[in-house]
Amino acid sequence: MKKILIFLSNPTNSSQLRLGKEHNAIDDALKQSKKRDEFQVVSKLAVRVKDLRRTLLELEDNERAIVHFSGHGAGSDGLILEDDSGKIKLVSTEALAILFKQFQQQVECVILNACYSEQQAEAVHQHIDCVIGMNKVIGDVAAINFATAFYEALGAGKTYEKCFEFARGSLNLQVIPESETPKIRYRPQRNNSDIQEAKETKNPDNSSSPPVSQTMTFSGGNVQGPVGQAGRDLTQTANQSQSFANVSFSGSGNNFNAINSASGSVNIDQSQTQTFGENSESKIETVLAELEKLKQEIATTSSLSLIQKKQVEIPVEMLETELKKPQPDKGLIDEAVEALEKGLEGVEKLAGPVMKVATILAKVWV
Question: Whole-structure pTM over 0.70, yes or no?
Fold first, then answer.
């Protein structure tokens, strides 16, 4: 039986994540899978360095495991665990690599479901054959959906590489615009999952046959406005089309209409118009200017530690990135503002600028 070691870390002085929902989603995905009896989930909440160390030490030499970390990343500074008081404890990239080197015989795959964790993934991959990290900010919705789909595929007996592709495809399928955020580093190994898949592609006469291929294509995100406007139309409609096997999707937003074609395929039309309020373009430019000022104030304040500054920089960057898009995602923006407010809670000097940003953004959409 393969162990799945889930480590959750959300220090009290960091922005709060929906880690409980992610944990439950992973657990449900495995329990409902056809190979559920092949996995044992071991969960560690509010994980400290010693929890990580001791849990790995409990692995027997002949055991195989997957390590799933969910929480905050700090880019080049490492991953964020918790200390004994529940506050931020930074673990460096080098320290993580050294730790996993000692368990390279037992640990087959490491998933770092945290913002800016790609650098740690690269370091750990020196010793672990399959490592997944995030190359930038990833929101709760994307992180939870990616993890859920990954373990659904794992429970179906897929290889780690195929689980990764399935999970990324799931983000696209649900029109979650972060499918390029997860990155995998993978050295193919002939493991049990590979052997099982090979068996399942045999014909009844025991001869091998190539697996049936499915193609998933994604296109769209085209936003059109009157010629001469500076990239933002006050009323914008994004058109997207996607296909998965014989199912195709088109449109934007979350409302789907399915239409059966004569060939038996299913065409799904999805249309939703996002309307900006009056002078929204100038409001967004104002917000971007205020965010630039806020970054400078965060950098110079003595009310935040270096790690806390790193944490609040993440939602600021998410806001800047999203607001510069032709069609910003209001859900991601609301999530980033909430994370920013929580991260700066109690810092009176910065409360005013954050409130100003939130107030202006509230007037952008109608």
Answer: no
Alpha carbon separation from 144 to 25, 26, 224, 326 (Å, rounded)? 7, 8, 32, 26
Q: Render pLDDT for 75-127 as a digit per residue (tens, 0 to 9).
A: 888 999 999 999 999 999 999 999 999 999 999 999 999 999 999 999 999 99
Structure tokens at 288: 């971007």
Count of the separate structural domains present in the chain: 3
Q: Is 26 exposed, middle or buried (0-12, 13-18, 19+ CB in 10 A)?
A: buried
CA-CA distances (angstroms) from residue 42 to 27, 59, 104?
10, 11, 19
* Residue ranges making up the domain that contains 319: 280-362
- Residues 130, 63 share a domain: yes
How far is residue 278 from each of residues 233, 234, 273, 281, 283, measured CA to CA in Å?
A: 11, 8, 16, 8, 9
Same structural domain for residues 343 and 303? yes
CB 56 within 8 A of CB 5: yes
Q: How many CA atoms lie within 13 A of 269 on its CB side?
A: 5
Let me know whether 232 and 99 are in one domain.
no
Same domain, 130 and 234: no
Domain boundary among 229, 252, 275: 275
Q: How far apart are CA 207 and CA 172, in angstroms?
A: 35
Question: Residues with Cβ < 8 Å from 58, sequence gap 6 or more?
Answer: none
Could you report how far apart the first and last alpha carbons of the chain are, in Å?
53
Task: Flag whether pLDDT at 236 surpasses 60.
Answer: no
